[in-house]
Amino acid sequence: MHTREEKLAAFGRLLDIMDALREKCPWNAAQTFDSIRRLTEEEVYELSDAIEEGDRQATAKEIGDLLYHMVFYARIGQEEGAFDIADSMNKVCDKMVFRHPHVFGPEAGKETTAQEIADTWELVKAKEKGGNKRVMDGIPKTMPALLKALSLQEKARGCGFDWEKKEDVWAKVQEEVTEVSEAATEGVPDHLEMEFGDLLFAVINAARLYGVDPESALNRSSEKFRRRFTYLEEHTLRKGLSFKDLSLAQMDAIWDQAKAQGL
Length: 263
Fold this sequence. Notes:
Elements: H1 4-24, H2 26-30, H3 33-53, H4 56-79, H5 85-99, H6 101-104, H7 114-128, H8 145-158, H9 169-184, H10 189-209, H11 214-238, H12 248-260
């Protein structure tokens, strides 16, 4: 592992490279906050993939790519006279110090569990904001819906608004299933969409309460579906057939073969 001095030198090198690219590379010079935002989102997902795959070298690379983007934004902010990278780092340092009184404040040294910290996290954040912002204001409107639902639920939990017993959530899930079924018979698309949303929100809540990451769970199921459908497709092609040549029962039989093979 590198020394603190080597880490600081590496960060300085990144800043120097960004300065050179911004001043001498036409493509880099032309970029704006808006133009690189989508690229940043892509980098976040690539980092997520590397972490999920357990590939530490790929994770190191993707962290670097994402860090490059953060320095990029800060450089643009510097050119606009709005802020620079030191402002960004000082802001997050100040925030972390404030939110961890058990480490940096008068409560330092007090024995605290991870669960106790998680349970009061949103209350500490609300105190930090001085009542100027509401708890849910920090959740981006553009966040993917599944992750947004989970974030909303986590923030509510951090304020003490949660199920007393996780088992109680199943009654809510069943209630939403019933309401979806009833809405499906009404023929009112907007109402049906709303009820499906309520059901999905309840299922995500249940996963959270049982310690399951709903994003990861849904991704695993999606990949399983992909593998089994690919098996069905390849099996059909090998016989010189297409999907229209098979009945649903025949496709189900091949699907079951895929399941039997552990796909």
